[in-house]
Amino acid sequence: MEIELEISGNTFSRTTDNPFHLDIRSLIEEFKELIGGKGISIDGIDLEGLIPRMIKGVFGCEEGCPADAKRLVQEGYDGFRLEYIEGGILKAEYDTGSSGKLTVKVFPDF
Question: Is the distance from CB of 25 to CB of 48 less than 8 angstroms?
Fold first, then answer.
């Protein structure tokens, strides 16, 4: 599974074989380090809650998208605009205002 975070042209990607044992906090901290020196802040945006929900929604999409992905899109999440993209990809966008859009994508592993 691949997780991609992007803001203002700065992209960070991580691939993991076991997404349920991924250190989400570490992933987010690495992304913050990438963008921190550029005056971009994502403080206060709940990525620690969103990313595990996206992982759960995408996991297993190689055999047909589970209801969790579509349900997450329907329910929404804390100011994010969510979209299910054919092929089992979940995309979340958050308008940060001055820094533009923060985009999170979770790609299934197939």
Answer: yes
* Cα four-point dihedral sign 60, 62, 64, 68: positive
CA distance 65 to 48: 23
| Adjacency order of strands within the sheet including 81-85 | 10-15, 2-7, 101-107, 89-95, 81-85
Q: Residue 75 has which token pair? A: 């329910």
> 3-state DSSP call for residue 19?
helix
CB 38 within 8 A of CB 11: no
pLDDT digits (tens, 9 = 90+) for 83-93: 998 878 899 99
Taking the model in full, what pTM does it have?
A: 0.89
Residue pair 58/108 in contact (Cβ under 8 Å)? The answer is yes
